């Protein structure tokens, strides 16, 4: 199969965003260097797997709303393990609004791949230099892998926004029966072993499976996960999304986030992977 890799300025309405486009036969993926964020994955010319908010921004330090944001080195608000000086720190870590560097690229009959790197010297909880890398490989699947070899406390998530066309049609399975409900702030036991979404959903499923299926009106997607200890399912629903400047009215019906996460913040090296393919 033919593969290709080209720089591209702009994607969708983000017309000045520095990007890279990977191609493998009919499949393509677009990655923003800002945030090392995959913005588009099309396994075929007709099907877009990822959702990008029509109101997403990238200037003024904004995190791009959509695609696959990289959350690191903490997930959600920074807890005291990360926020040692008790400063105001951004949600979901420090790398969604940074320009990453392209350090490796490869195309062959087996696929197209890139490695992006970010070096950080100003972590609030660690004085040394830390390097994190994101590799993206496109072939019959799209594989995104985040790694950091430094033995520092670190959480991470590949915070994927999936284009589902219609929230009523979504089914994610298998999911563990028990989850932490961040909306109700309690642990819930749900024996249906699946997740239909008809209200604000912000759930942490610990010890989730290595393979999930996301079924929806646009087709079924396999989501492979590795190096994770949880899957987070999120949809802000109508009221909460109304308060978000980068979300249009009605957008909440068009996406669901299924996030491959490592939430345990012990000092083990990080290798977190999400692999997507239509089935
Ligand atoms: C999810 C969290 O992962 O991300 C939610 O579980 C959060 O609590 C959501 O609201 C969006 O976060 P942000 O920082 O991109 O607005």
Describe what this molecule looks like in 3D.
One of its GO terms (biological process) is carbohydrate metabolic process. GO terms for molecular function: carbohydrate binding; glucose-6-phosphate 1-epimerase activity. This is Putative glucose-6-phosphate 1-epimerase. Its EC number is 5.1.3.15. It comes from Rheinheimera sp. BAL341. The protein has 279 residues and is an all-beta fold. It has one domain: Distorted Sandwich (Beta-galactosidase, Chain A, domain 5), CATH 2.70.98.10. It has one helix at residues 237-242, and strands spanning 3-11, 14-24, 27-32, 37-42, 70-71, 101-108, 111-120, 130-138, 142-148, 156-163, 171-173, 178-181, 186-189, 201-206, 211-216, 219-226, 230-235, 255-262, 270-278. Strands 6-7-8-9-19-16-15-11 form an 8-stranded antiparallel sheet, with no helix packed on it. Strand 8 (130-138) and strand 9 form a beta hairpin. The two termini are 20 Å apart. The model has no long low-confidence stretch (mean pLDDT 95). The structure holds 6-O-phosphono-beta-D-glucopyranose (BG6). 6-O-phosphono-beta-D-glucopyranose (BG6) is lined by residues 63, 76, 91-92, 159, 182, 202, 232, 234, 259.
Could you say which structural class the secondary elements and strand pairing correspond to?
mainly beta
Mean pLDDT: 95
As residue ranges, the low-confidence spans are none
Report helical residue fraction. Answer: under 10%
């Amino acid at each position: 199969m033919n593969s290709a890799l080209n720089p591209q300025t702009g994607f969708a309405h983000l017309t000045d965003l520095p990007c890279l486009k990977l191609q493998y036969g009919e499949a393509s993926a677009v990655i923003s260097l800002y945030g090392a964020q995959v913005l588009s994955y099309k396994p075929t010319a007709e099907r877009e797997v990822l959702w990008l908010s029509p109101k997403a921004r990238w200037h003024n330090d904004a995190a791009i709303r959509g695609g696959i944001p990289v959350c690191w080195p903490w997930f959600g608000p920074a807890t005291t393990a990360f926020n040692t000086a008790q400063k105001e720190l951004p949600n979901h870590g420090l790398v969604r609004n940074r320009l990453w560097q392209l350090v490796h690229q490869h195309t062959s009959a087996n696929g197209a791949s890139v490695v992006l790197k970010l070096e950080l010297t100003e972590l609030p909880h660690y004085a040394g230099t830390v390097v994190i890398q994101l590799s993206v490989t496109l072939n019959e699947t799209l594989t995104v892998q985040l790694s950091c070899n430094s033995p520092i406390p670190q959480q991470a998530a590949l915070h994927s926004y999936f284009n589902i066309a219609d929230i009523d049609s979504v089914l994610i399975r298998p999911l563990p029966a028990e989850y932490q409900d961040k909306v109700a702030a309690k642990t819930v036991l749900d024996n249906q072993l699946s997740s239909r979404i008809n209200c604000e959903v912000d759930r942490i499923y610990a010890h989730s499976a290595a393979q999930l299926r996301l079924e929806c009106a646009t087709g079924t997607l396999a989501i492979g996960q590795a190096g994770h200890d949880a899957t987070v399912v999120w949809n802000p629903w109508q009221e909460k999304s109304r308060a978000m400047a980068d979300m249009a009215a009605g957008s909440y019906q068009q996406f669901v986030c299924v996030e491959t996460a490592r939430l345990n913040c012990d000092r083990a090296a990080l290798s977190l992977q999400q692999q997507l393919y239509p089935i």
